Amino acid sequence: MQLIDKALRFAARAHEGQYRKGTKTPYITHPVAVGMLLLKHGYSEELVAAGILHDTVEDTDATLEDIEKIFGRNVAEVVAGCSEPDKSLGWEERKEHTIEFLKTASNEIRAVACADKLHNIASIMDDVTQGGEEIWTRFNRGRDQQEWYYRSLIDSLGTQGTFPLLEELKTAVQTAFANT
């Protein structure tokens, strides 16, 4: 648990002052939830730490070098695999890259990416329940494009076989987009 505790403290500092898109929910709740999903499914302490850190390089001033120095090469490789390589690209290009990359990614990267997407879609579903369909307008692309992305991710993540987190994601996506 020492590595997980260190990851929690590092991510909390890195994401300080950040909020979930369109909400007043502190951003740190997302990486913590991703880590908890991985822990619940019996993944290693290293992978849980990587899940907690998965957005630090993409969304904060933290670097992969920082992650590797503090948490080791394995954690840094998973964080790198879960980070979009070029945020200057358009939404479609970034999402298509992620979909293609995950088809051949390691099981560890696929597990963290799946936990990330599972928590994201669960959060969206909660927000839709409380605030209605207009919640989709807070995203760069609306409901239809989000549905395409999530369904494509499921296919991509399943290329190498299924696993319990992926089954949970499939169920959540089916529920979120049930009326289409």
UniProtKB/TrEMBL annotation:
Query: Which Pfam families did the record assign?
Result: HD_4
Q: What is the lineage of its organism?
A: Bacteria, Bacillati, Bacillota, Bacilli, Bacillales
Gene3D superfamilies hit by this protein: Hypothetical protein af1432
Where does the signal sequence lie?
none
| Keyword Disulfide bond among record annotations | no
**Occurrences of domain HD/PDEase (ranges):** 23-130
Domain of life of the source: Bacteria
- Please verify whether the record's keywords include Aminoacyl-tRNA synthetase: no
Protein name per its UniProtKB record: Phosphohydrolase
Species name for this entry?
A: Neobacillus piezotolerans
InterPro entries for the chain: HD/PDEase_dom, MESH1
Q: Which keywords, in A-to-Z order, does the entry hold? A: Hydrolase
SUPFAM superfamilies listed in its UniProt record: HD-domain/PDEase-like
Query: Which is one GO molecular function term here?
Result: guanosine-3',5'-bis(diphosphate) 3'-diphosphatase activity
